[in-house]
Amino acid sequence: MEICMNETADLEYLEKKYQLSKRLLLDSNPFFENEKIFKGEKIVIPGWGFVQNNPFHPSPSLTKNTYNAVPISWPVIDPKRPYHFFALTSDIKVLKKNYPFIKERIIGRSVLGNPLVELLIGSGTKKVHMNGSFHANEWITTAIMMKWLNEYVRKLILNESINGISVRQLYEQITLSFVPMVNPDGVNLVLAAESFDPQVKEQAVKLNNNCEDFSDWKANIRGVDLNNQFPAFWEIEKERKSPKSPAPRDYPGDYPLSEPEAIAMSELVKQSQFELIVAFHTQGEEIYWGYLNYEPEKSEEIVKEYELLSGYKGIRMIDSHAGFRDWFIKEYRKPGFTVELGRGRNPLPLDQFDEIYRKAKGIFWASLYLLCK
Asked: Signal peptide span per the entry (predicted)?
C-alpha cells in the first residue's frame, strides 16, 4: 500500500510501526535516497493493505476512519486454474503491486515475441534459480511455482520461519531467480489455441498430425523440444530421437540453442553465477540429480533433504542428454535438479494441484535454506 506522510519520520520509525526490515522498505522504494521521509512524501509499505473496519456495513466513502491498515496474511493470487501466459502476467501484476520488492526482468522473447519473464526476490549474494513449463503441456508447474512464490513473500512480511531459519534471513542471504514459464507460446497453444493468429495455428495443426487437440504438445511453437536444446552431448539425442523434423514433442532442433527460449535460458545462466538450479517438470514424483559424474558431492546431500521433505525418489543417472539441467551440471559442476511433480499422464489435471503443492513445497524451501547453513 502507499501512504502519504503526515509528519517527517525516519526509516526506523516505519520499521517499527509496520514491523518490516529496512531492506524490505528500501527494496520497495528504489528511488528513496534519504534516511528521512518528509511530510507530504509518499512511500510504499510492502505486504500491507487496507481492510474495512465493518465489512457488514460498508461505508460509501473510502476514508481512513473506515479502513484499517493490516499486514496481508492471505494469498493475493489463486493460480489453481488453467495457467496460460495471460494468467501468469495478470498474477505477476498483482504480486508486484502488493510486494513491490519483487523485481521483474525480461530475459528474452519467445518465437512469437512473448516476454520470458524472470522474477527476482532477495538481496543476497548467493543465487538460486528455478524454472517451470519448459514443456508446454506441463503448465501446471508454473501454477504451482507461483503459489510457492506467493507463500514466500507472505511469510516474509509476517516474519515467519522455515526449518528454524527466518524467511527474512533467506531474503537477505539469497537472491531467488524465478522463470515460471520458459515456453509461453507452447503453453498458450495447449490452453488458449483460439488466441493464435490463424496462420500460426494452421502450421501448428500440421505439425500436430492435422489435429486441433494440442493437449499432448510439449514443444515450442516451432516444434522444437526446448529441454533437448542444450549443448550437453546434444548430438546423441539428435541421432536417436525419432522425430527428425519439427514435431509436437522430442525434436531436439537442427542444432543446439537454435530456439530463442533456449538461448535466453543459456544466457541467463552464463550471466548469473547460480549456486543451484531446479527445473520443475511433470510427472513421476522423481528427482534427477546426477549427470555423468559431473555433479558435485553436495548434490547428494541436497537430494536427500528433498526426498525427506517430499517423499519423491531421487535418481542419480538416467539415459538422457541435452537438457537444461544436464548442461548446467556439465558446464558449472554445481548442483542441478529436475523435479518431476505429480503422477499420471500429462497434462496433469488440476485436481492434483493441492497434493502436488503440499508434497513438493519442501523442495522449494530447502533449495533456499540449505544455502544458508
From this structure: none
113 burial (CB, 10 Å; 0-12 / 13-18 / 19+) is exposed
Q: Which of 41, 261, 340, 355 is an active site residue?
A: 340
Q: In this structure, what DSSP letter does residue 259 have?
A: S
Residue partners of 292: CB distance under 8 A and separation at least 6? 317, 330
Q: Decide if 172 is catalytic.
A: no
Residues pairing with 120 in the sheet: 103, 177
Q: Which residue has the cell 534427477?
A: 288
CATH number of the domain to which 99 belongs? 3.40.630.10
Pairing relationship of beta strands 48-52 and 126-132 according to DSSP bridges:
unpaired
Q: Based on the domain organization, do 7 and 119 belong to the same domain?
A: no
Task: Please indicate, yes or no, whether residues 61 and 95 belong to a single structural domain of this protein.
Answer: no
C-alpha radius of gyration, the chain, whole number: 22
Query: Which tens digits make up the pLDDT trace of 179-238?
Result: 999 999 999 999 999 999 999 999 999 999 999 999 999 999 999 999 999 999 999 999
- Our CA dihedral for 317, 318, 320, 326, rounded to 10 degrees, sits at -30
Q: What range does the domain containing 307 cover?
A: 85-185+258-372
57 and 103 assigned to the same domain: no
148 and 89 together in one domain? yes
What value, to the nearest 5°, has the Cα angle with vertex 291 and ends 285 and 294?
A: 140
Number of domains observed in the structure of the chain: 2
146 and 51 in a common domain: no
pTM (2 d.p.): 0.95
